[in-house]
Amino acid sequence: MLLEDLRILQQRAENTLDDSDSPEELENWKIKYLGRKGELTHILRGIGSLPKEERSSAGKVSNQVKVALEKIYEEKKRYFDEKQYHDKMMERIDITLPGHPIYQGKLHPSTRILRQIYSIFAPMGFQIFDGPEVETDLYNFELLNMPPHHPARDMWDTFYINKKTLLRTHTSPGQIHAMKYFCPDPIRVILPGKCYRYEAITARSEIMFHQIEGLAVGKSLTMADLKGILVEFAHQMFGDGRKTRFRCSYFPFTEPSVEMDIDCMICKGKGCQICKRTGWLEILGAGIVHPQVLKNGGYDPRVYCGLAFGMGPERIAMLKYGIDDIRHFFSNDLRFLEQFC
Ligand code: PHE
């Protein structure tokens, strides 16, 4: 009886295999006949309950059926594999069709502005000098005239790595690095890079942003040189007709200190929301390097004079392109980033 079942099963399996004409059908066939829950397995399970004399011949025949079915399965599988390979080889590729366009990345707006700034200062003799992003308290504050309890530190709160190591809050510590590196030669450098501040993220402030610092040290530099450099920068960056003004300000590391404004390009100086009705937009801080800071960098302030300025490329981009929220820069939304090319 069981031998008869096996013979019928084999016959049926062979017939249906002939009919299967895709690799998927072949796999289904395999599951149906040879799978763990397949028909052959089902029959094999029944062998154990046969009378002893029949068991060995039933086992032998069912094994033969299994081997036979596996063999025809392999043959058919090979047939499909070869066919698939052959079909692929015969596929015609029309090489005259246009290719898929390759998505090309663009420079980040901060990078673009930084590069623009480099190219304005390079012809004036400023070379790029890199400082570390992880700074010591000494460089970020103390050597810039901010001893541990100086109230100005509040403006530059940051992320501390340990008591004496922190993420720099501005690029100004780079002034000290540059002075120590070049002393006693004259200096003309710009120091670009990332800065960090511990503050609430809003449309106007981010915890990470870029700055670019400028430093010139020489024997006959004056405030007039500083103003000349910065007015030229403003004209090249924002257009020839821009008006500029310098306001007195305070930074612990410059004396005197100033801030430079340009006339508001939105309202043309009449007063609007962007310029808070003043008609002016602040673009940078600057000043004459404090004698103590020059000394900290190794220069004798009786012989040398330093000029320094610092600005934020994100702020400059915001003013130049009318961007109303600094958070756009680092939220990685391509709809924003792709507008700058
Ligand atoms: N470091 C100052 C800031 O972060 C800017 C500055 C740089 C001011 C150099 C004067 C001279 O606000």
In short:
By secondary structure, this protein is of the alpha+beta class. It has helices at residues 2-19, 23-34, 39-46, 52-90, 109-121, 137-140, 173-182, 223-238, 291-296, 313-321, 334-337; strands at 127-128, 134-136, 160-162, 165-167, 187-196, 208-218, 244-251, 254-263, 280-289, 305-311. The strands form two sheets. Strands 1-5-6-10-9-8-7 form a seven-stranded mixed beta sheet, with helices on both faces. Strands 2-4-3 form a three-stranded antiparallel beta sheet.
Topology:
Blueprint: H1 2-19, H2 23-34, H3 39-46, H4 52-90, H5 109-121, E1 127-128, E2 134-136, H6 137-140, E3 160-162, E4 165-167, H7 173-182, E5 187-196, E6 208-218, H8 223-238, E7 244-251, E8 254-263, E9 280-289, H9 291-296, E10 305-311, H10 313-321, H11 334-337
Parallel strand pairs: 1-5
Antiparallel strand pairs: 2-4, 3-4, 5-6, 6-10, 7-8, 8-9, 9-10
Helix pairs in contact: 1-4, 2-4, 5-10
